[in-house]
Fold these 2 entries.
Entry 1:
Amino acid sequence: MAKAIRVHETGGPEVLRFEDYDPGKPGAGEVLIEQKAIGLNFIDIYFRTGLYKAETPFVPGGEGAGVVLETGEGVDNLKPGDRVAYCVRGGAYAERRLIAAERLVRVPDNIADEQAAAMMLKGMTAWYLLRRTYPVKAGDTILYHAAAGGVGLILGQWAKHLGATVIGTAGSEEKVEIARAHGFDHVIDYTKQDFLEAVREITDGRMCDVVYDSVGKDTFPASLDCLRPLGMFVSFGQSSGPVPPFEITVLAQKGSLFATRPTIFNYIAAKKDLEEAARDLFSVVGSGAVKVVINQRYPLSEVARAHQDLEGRRTTGTSVLIP
């Protein structure tokens, strides 16, 4: 019998129960994998607390990496022993799991299991933000909030690789230094500086082409004021609470701005898009242009502590759970 973390009722970290769990046998089109590492993400907290809805009981977690144990009928592109990784909605906090074969990607030899688990959701989030939602090009100026987080450290390096001027915000001197070491040209400590005024100074008043904001309530509406006319506001998370309702005419008043609320699962819904995202991500990491450093490791059984650290903003970069 394998073990998994199950949530029977939503709430605080205490609802994360480490239990016996039988994933079952793979059905048609499915694969049973033994997990080597599992990624930790803020979206897991949204599901645990009930902010994002899931039918209970459920196994949280959206990314992981492991080895194929068994394949179901009709699966001819994978075989036992293959190293694979994924980014899906739920089911990751487990020693073993079933998953649709079409949602798996092969992990190249030059990418470690922990790296793959730590960067599938975060790295492909950076991919769609930089390559699809607002295609960043050389000469662009971007602002990214929570620069020392898992997505931020990947996106900062990748954006710099693309030739952008990369501005970030962070909440401590330690996090400022971490972000600076991962591609950010300028990092604003928002506990000491007003980030809007700092952006105005850094850009000599020209402001930014795009703002990537996963913080939400605490950074709105100042994020809009960091944009130049025709700039894009990308709200892709709400770690401080949701962005409050606002009149759409505000976008016109502030310079005919664009605003979007994307989610990764729309960008990788098609198999070809999933494969393109994984290919681009593995390539940029494999080349050394983007380094994925794991700063925290927790046993799967201690996932409640991991959630407490993540919610308390005591983590930096990427974190993994080890089954």
Entry 2:
Amino acid sequence: MKAILCDRFGGSEVMRLAEIETPSPGPGEVLIRVHAAGVNPVDWKIREGGLARLFPCKFPLIPGWDAAGTIAALGDGVAGLSLGERVWSFCRKPDIQWGTYAEYVVMTADGVAGMPANLTFAQACTVPLAALTAWQSMLEVAQLRPGHSVLIHAGAGGVGGFAVPMAKWVGATVIATAKAANHDYVRALGADHVIDYSAEDFVAATRALCPEGVDMVFGTVGGEVLTRSYQTVKPGGILVSITDKTDRELAERLGIRCKYVFVKPDAGHLRRLAGLAEQGVLRVPEIVEMPLSRAAEALDLSRTGHVRGKIVLTVG
């Protein structure tokens, strides 16, 4: 099979298109024929070695965690999935080595689910990592409920683009940050209020909308933005970060909760998300498509941090 390989940590220069042996699924696993692979910031962070302390990496390494394709083979003991079925998956494994930037990927069956009938492979592969992150952060950890208020950073981004409509579906009041050019886009996703983070103080703007603070902050941006976001949470509320580790001491002083979340594969959650996509609740983001051979260019584009929507690698 064709695959993008990295032989060491580094930049674009470490990536190459190669022909390698097609893997076989073991017990409890499935082999997915990848038709499209989603590009996420975590991919270039892994390529550069930035997450080596969190995740053991082995070489040669195939990047990529998001995939949409068809079931090509079933391992022993797999039930509920069938050959040829259109599926999607967040293919994160304990050891980082065999990812989705390839014609085939093996994944445990408990992380694979049927993809939405109304989406193409290119559309579907943009969803798993980002939407699972939003689901697990907001609904599982923060327990967002009707009547709650939530501040979602980077509402036009990969995760924010799913978090905004998901929070609105729950029944929350949604405040999102985005640059001015993306305000209409974020409002169309369902945001009640959009703050131009480049032109106004998002803390003051949020407090003007919710004087007591919001019930939840969804921190999809780290650094100073995350640190200042603690000031927007009401007493008893929660800040969830998917970028930097949270500051429990600061949270305790403010009388709020905080939690760092790293998304986990979950077929059950994927099935729930498929239902939301088919109902039209989740809107597929804008897509920039590139062939697998341009994977290095795709990661460099992702690294700029200014992509609206998602980048997709078309595989076959």
